[in-house]
Design goal:
This protein is mainly α and 335 residues long. The protein has a domain at 245-335. The chain is 71% helix and 0% strand. It has 13 helices and no strands. It has helices at residues 12-29, 33-61, 66-70, 84-97, 117-146, 149-158, 163-197, 200-208, 227-241, 246-274, 289-308, 310-321, 323-334. The longest helix is centred in the middle third of the chain and has 35 residues, at 163-197. The mean pLDDT is 83.
Length: 335
């Protein structure tokens, strides 16, 4: 009955620190958008410098070899691309990898506070994704260049180790491993801050449309921030921290997120059919092929997640379904 198991006090120290971090950053965000955004900007800069340091030092001083990239793992078994087991494994890996990209769309949540959003939102999305993709490609190439694949597999199996720390320790010793561990902690801080910053603007908009709790539409008279919405989110986030492990939460998040990403892309087809003459300041590139491929990919990810991770898929589905009666309740009150 693993599907129904919750262990709120497992890794209590880590979860307690996480809850404290959520509360502190929520408090910071209630005291103005500029301060929270500035913190995210400086953390992002520090992270980029740290990643570049890993790449440059790893390639120059890591003592690696291209043979590490070309040599398969000891337990490697060649499979055909049509093998369903391989497809399941690839999607399971993608489920974890997509967490690194999650948050790409949250820039749209503050579209009302951005100058020339029709121009700047697409530019920000495209430029941001290109920077992230480039950084991850370089960093992972460095990992594979410095350490043999069997050692990286061992790092994953150890559960309590991180690839970046293992790679830096390989050529910079314990001092370097400590420094990169601190950078990872700061990265986590920045990711959490950005995640806290954006979504309350959605709750605020929903409340303004009378589709959420009225208090979420309140704005602080001095700091001009949606403080009730921020604290509602903070309280819910703390409950989710207690619901499972980090990997379970991220798997559940990606499952739910790609359900809505796919639904949004499918909505493009519906809107093109229902309102063919509507004004469209920005049109989908490659329509209809690109959005169709994306919808198919999202559907495949959802189905395979239900097979590979039934617990996370089940809980994610239940959480999404709880929004249905809430929507009808608030919609009936508005009418």
């Amino acid at each position: 009955m693993q599907f129904l198991v919750f262990k709120p006090f497992e890794n209590a120290g880590v979860k307690g620190l996480t809850i404290l971090l959520i509360l502190v950053l929520t408090f910071l965000n209630t005291h103005g958008l500029k301060g929270a955004a500035a913190l995210s900007t400086w953390i992002t800069r520090l992270v980029i410098v740290g990643l570049l340091t890993i790449v440059v030092c790893g390639l120059l001083f890591g003592g690696g070899s291209f043979a590490n990239i070309q040599t398969p793992a000891t337990g490697y078994v060649a499979r055909e691309w049509t093998d369903f087991g391989l497809i399941k494994a690839m999607f399971a890996a993608l489920l974890a990898a997509f967490w690194a990209y999650e948050g790409w769309n949250t820039i749209g949540f503050i579209g009302g506070e951005i100058k020339e959003p029709h121009r700047n939102l697409p530019l920000a999305l495209f430029a941001g994704m290109m920077v992230i993709i480039g950084a991850y490609v370089l960093v992972n190439f460095t990992y594979l260049y410095v350490l043999p694949i069997d050692q990286l597999v061992g790092v994953h199996s150890a559960k309590n180790d991180i690839a970046a720390v293992a790679v830096v320790r390989h050529f910079a010793g314990d001092v370097g491993a400590t420094l990169i561990s601190m950078i990872i902690l700061i990265t986590t801080l920045g990711c959490t801050n950005a995640t806290i910053l954006m979504p309350p603007r959605v709750y605020y908009a929903m409340a303004k449309d009378k589709l959420f709790f009225p208090r979420a539409a309140e704005i602080h008279p001095k700091y001009h921030t949606p403080n009730p919405a921020l604290w509602m989110q903070g309280a819910w986030a703390c409950l989710l921290v207690l619901s499972g492990s980090f990997d379970q939460l991220t798997d559940m998040l990606i499952f739910a997120a790609f359900f809505f990403y796919g639904a949004t892309a499918f909505g493009v087809f519906i809107m093109r059919r229902r309102e063919p003459h509507a004004e469209r300041p920005y049109k989908v590139w490659g329509y209809p092929v690109v959005p169709a491929l994306f919808v198919i990919f999202c559907a495949a990810l959802i189905v395979i997640t239900c097979i590979n991770h039934p617990r996370e898929a089940g809980i994610g589905t239940v959480l999404m379904l709880t929004g249905v009666p809430m929507y009808y309740y608030w919609n009936s009150r508005r009418q």
